[in-house]
Amino acid sequence: MPARAGNNVAGGDVARPTLTDRITVALIPQAAEDLQHLQDQTGLSKTDIVNRAISLYDFVNTQQGQGSFRPPGQLPSARAASLRQGSFPPAVLAHR
Q1: Residue 10, φ and ψ in degrees, nearest 5
Q2: What pLDDT, in 10s, does the model give residues 56-70?
């Protein structure tokens, strides 16, 4: 599928970057389920979700390397409780 110039997400037009790399990924069943769940919840395309996930992983990895990121199990208890109550994707919490 060719990249489109824009996509109407939550009432706004979002410009898409130029396509630079195309890959094929074999997802395990749980990851495929999680991806479909995120697509249903957000209305984003699978490509957008995967791109955001990669960017988020890069950010977290960089923060951990700098010592400024702590996984939910190491956060102060009030913050960890709020994350467990739904402000953090369940799939991420399950992989701590």
Answers
A1: 50, 40
A2: 999 988 888 877 766
